[in-house]
Write a structure and sequence with these properties.
Length: 197
């Protein structure tokens, strides 16, 4: 049995990290609060339109409590919130994740999401992170389907999905809550394991 078949068995245990020369993808964990708060506080203006969880002036101690909850939920297989860290793990470059919004873990479907730190956005990092996330997904995770949802007005997010080979399945009308605006139309993209490249 290959290692990939092993990880896809019923005894699935969420893998913890995936490294590239440019960044590390891993579960947030105790001790990450200050570096995540720094990334969020420098990115509020960039994030607040589409990321409803974004708030200004995050307190590092509150963010530390949050990363501990993220880590606990990751270990419990409730939600997989993943940090994008610099290779030495001293800086948070953004966040991503596999979210169980399409059924329980056993059904092997999830929705991926992403944000990139403001000073790094638009430099191709989002595209490279989604490519790496999919490499990890098909190699060590058991997912059969990964979806991606974005506003029809979020050109960068749609381009990230398309660059990674996801298929646009359709557009839901007025289906996305956006801060301070009427609901946006929502593109739904997906990729299946059998389409891996
Ligand atoms: C959406 C996001 C994750 C994309 O990551 P990124 O690193 O900025 O994107 P990239 O630099 O990899 O660029 C991807 C593509 O979008 C284009 N792009 C980037 N920023 C853009 C902008 N502001 N307007 C239009 N196109 C843009 C790039 O030119 C590139 O296009 P290409 O494939 O034709 O070369 C990031 O911008 C972000 O964090 N946005 C705020 C949070 C958010 O909206 N998250 C997604 C929710 S669905």
């Amino acid at each position: 049995m290959s290692s990939s078949e092993t990880t896809r068995s019923s005894t699935f245990l969420a893998p913890d990290r995936w490294e590239t020369p440019e960044f590390v993808l891993r579960s947030f964990r105790p001790g990450d609060g200050a570096r995540l708060a720094a990334a969020l506080n420098s990115s509020y203006d960039h994030l607040h339109r589409f990321m409803l969880w974004a708030i200004p002036n995050e307190d590092p101690d509150e963010v530390e409590q949050r990363v501990r909850r993220f880590h606990a939920r990751y270990l419990l297989h409730e939600d997989f919130i993943i940090g994008i860290l610099s290779p030495d793990e001293s800086e948070v470059l953004g966040g991503t994740g596999f979210h169980l919004r399409e059924g329980p873990l056993e059904q092997k479907r999830c929705e991926a999401g992403m944000w990139i730190r403001a000073d790094l956005a638009g430099s191709g990092l989002g595209k490279r992170v989604l490519a790496a996330l999919l490499d990890w997904a098909w190699t060590e995770w058991h997912w059969e389907r990964i979806s991606w949802h974005c506003s029809t007005q979020n050109v960068a997010s749609a381009r990230v999905a398309e660059s990674a080979g996801l298929t646009r399945e359709g557009t839901l009308r007025a289906a996305l809550t956006v801060r301070g605006e009427e609901p946006h139309d929502l593109h739904v993209y997906s990729i299946l394991r059998k389409e891996r490249i």
